[in-house]
């Protein structure tokens, strides 16, 4: 594997999930694979889980790891071609990415969308430029439109904890005060559509995701209908795709409470984190029996380790 940016880079999703669960059982079985190999993790935006879990995954495989918080510690990057750099940007992505490729055998990149220009965000301009100019395999650590390591960890978690062969999985929109990217829900949707699950998306009117990611999903504006008999409930806010990056007024009643969960099949609650308590998700749920958010975050290590292992095997 030379690129991990979406589910489409994985020919055998089921095998990758199985491999991740095997690595969870035997974390150090492939310690020799990454010997004398270096992973660089480059962040253009904040991170807790992605940074720590991917670093741990690479260390488990025997790699050296370098982390660069580009947004805080790096030079301001110029992304556009054919501009005279007489403003605030100091270094062009063409040199920056190419130099990183000199130092690292695998690069992970995080870059959020601007949420202003939909065409630019959905063209994955920043992520694709890193891929183009660094010359080594690249793992997405969340890009403008997808968060594949999160979605792989989510599928691993569902596979691990499910009690029936084909569970009902629901992605439900949650309120927020800030416009958030569609990356996590887009990605979750396209991975669930490739998994062995019945998949429903519930959101208020006006929050339709781009249909490229939701083929095969049942979509409803009725949260109760979606929650009925659900085995896994994935809670996430996202801003509108059209009008792009906007928050629409109302919909505060979409926050999940224990009362709403009564109609589920003892549904387990998932969230990619960070989560804003009592705005996106109630404390009573986060502190209760049904929440598996911390377990889910723990599985980020095995998702990253399975992907990095596949890349190392390609050298
Ligand atoms: C990001 C998102 O894509 O929704 C990262 C999730 C892994 N979340 C946020 O930016 C939350 C910001 C906030 O202020 O709550």
Short description:
This protein is of the alpha/beta class. It has helices at 13-25, 49-60, 70-73, 93-103, 118-122, 125-134, 148-161, 183-192, 223-227, 258-261, 283-286, 293-298, 300-313; strands at 3-4, 38-43, 64-69, 77-78, 91-92, 106-110, 138-140, 168-173, 198-202, 218-220, 232-236, 268-270.
Structure description:
The protein has 13 helices and 12 strands. The protein has 315 residues and is α/β, with parallel strands linked by helices. Helix 10 links the parallel strand 11 (232-236) and strand 12. Bound molecules: N-(3-carboxypropanoyl)-L-norvaline. The site of N-(3-carboxypropanoyl)-L-norvaline (SN0) has 8 residues, from helix 8.
CA-based shape: globular
Bound molecules: N-(3-carboxypropanoyl)-L-norvaline
Number of beta strands:
12
**From the helix content, strand content and strand pairing, which structural class follows?**
alpha/beta
Strand content: 15-25%
Unreliable sequence segments: none
| Rg estimate, integer Å | 19 Å
Q: What does the average pLDDT come to?
A: 98
Q: Spell out the helices and strands N to C.
A: EHEHEHEEHEHHEHEHEEHEHEHHH
Span between termini: 9 Å
Oligomeric organization of the protein chains: single chain
The total count of helices amounts to 13
Strand order of the largest sheet: 1-7-6-2-3
* Biggest sheet record: 5 strands, parallel
């Amino acid at each position: 594997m030379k690129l991990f940016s979406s589910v489409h880079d994985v020919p055998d999703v089921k095998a990758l999930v199985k491999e991740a669960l095997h690595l969870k059982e035997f974390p150090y079985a492939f310690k020799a694979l990454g010997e004398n190999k270096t992973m660089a993790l480059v962040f253009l935006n904040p991170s807790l889980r992605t940074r720590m879990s991917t670093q741990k995954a690479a260390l488990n495989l025997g790699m050296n790891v370098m982390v660069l918080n580009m947004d805080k510690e790096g030079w301001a990057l110029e992304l556009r071609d054919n501009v005279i750099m007489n403003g605030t940007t100091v270094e062009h992505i063409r040199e920056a990415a190419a130099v990183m490729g000199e130092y690292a055998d695998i690069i992970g990149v995080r870059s959020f969308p601007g949420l202003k220009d939909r065409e630019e965000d959905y063209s994955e301009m920043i992520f694709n430029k890193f891929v183009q100019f660094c010359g080594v395999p690249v793992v997405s650590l969340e890009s403008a439109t997808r968060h594949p390591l999160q979605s792989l960890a989510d599928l691993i978690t569902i596979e691990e904890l499910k009690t029936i062969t084909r569970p009902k999985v629901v992605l439900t929109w949650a309120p927020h005060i800030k416009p958030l990217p569609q990356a996590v829900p887009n990605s979750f949707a396209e991975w669930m559509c490739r998994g062995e699950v019945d998949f429903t998306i519930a959101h208020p009117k006006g929050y339709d995701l781009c249909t490229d990611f939701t083929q095969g999903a049942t979509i409803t504006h009725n949260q109760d209908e979606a929650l009925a008999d659900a085995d896994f409930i994935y809670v996430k806010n996202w801003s509108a795709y059209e009008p792009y990056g906007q928050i629409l007024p109302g919909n505060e009643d979409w926050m999940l409470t224990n009362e709403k969960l009564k109609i589920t099949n003892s549904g387990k609650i998932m969230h990619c984190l960070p989560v804003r308590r009592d705005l996106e998700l109630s404390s009573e749920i986060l502190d209760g029996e049904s929440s598996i958010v911390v377990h889910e975050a723990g599985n980020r290590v095995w998702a990253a380790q399975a992907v990095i292992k596949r890349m190392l095997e390609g050298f």
